[in-house]
Amino acid sequence: MDKKKLNAKDFINIGIFTVIYFVMFFITGMLGYIPIFAVIIPLVLGILGGIPFMLFLTKTGKFGAATIMGTLVSVLCFLMGQSWISIPFGIVFGFLADLIFKAGEYKSWKHTVLGYCVFTEWVIGSMLPMWIMRDTFFEAYRSRGGTDEYINAIMGLTANWMLPVVIVLGIVGGVIGAYLGKAILKKHFVKAGIV
Question: 176: exposed, middle or buried (C-beta count within 10 Å: 0-12, 13-18, 19+)?
Fold first, then answer.
């Protein structure tokens, strides 16, 4: 059996950690009812998701795992009512993260941090309609019972210049989350040989 290929145990781990990671996303999304949190979701998700994602890496450490997780979490996001745009973002950023992890042979801490920062950017896909489909997005939100006060606050926080800031916040959250995950799961990193 090729130890570099995903096996049944890996798929079980991917499923378990995708659910845990999605719970972190759901918690982050709930914070979005406070307007400022709606635009710093990548920062908060990067931090909260760091612990389960770092453990996920030590348990799988094979090419394709991050792509599958990115795909699954973005599909779940879509099924929960987010835009379809999250799906290609989940696939692409999951795949890019896989390439980075593989380049570091799943042992390089630098590649682990960079890969996780890239993976975290999938969530931009679920937020992008606030910038590129503003009228449709906010009208749909209003029809679901969103108050004018909340919608106006979010519209004020999602000016065009904020999109690059939100992307950078995802990178910052990824770095913090990776180091937090490493600190909490130190013995797993030693066992996996990640320095």
Answer: middle
Write a three-state SS string for 134-170.
HHHHHHHHHHCCCCHHHHHHHHHHCCCCHHHHHHHHH
The residue with tokens 């009208």 is 139
**Closest to 94 in 3D by CA, of 126, 128, 119, 129:** 119
Q: Are 16 and 135 in contact (CB under 8 A)?
A: no
Q: Which residue's structure tokens are 């029809």?
A: 143
92-107 confidence digits (pLDDT tens): 999 999 999 999 998 8
Where helices occur in 1-147 by DSSP H, the ranges are: 8-31, 35-39, 41-59, 65-79, 86-103, 109-120, 124-127, 129-132, 134-143
Measured distance CA(124)–CA(74) in Å, rounded:
11
pLDDT tens digit sequence for 123-166: 999 999 889 888 888 887 778 777 788 888 888 888 888 999 99
Indicate the pTM of the whole model: 0.89
Which are the contacts of 52, defined by CB distance < 8 A and separation ≥ 6? 17, 20, 21, 24, 181
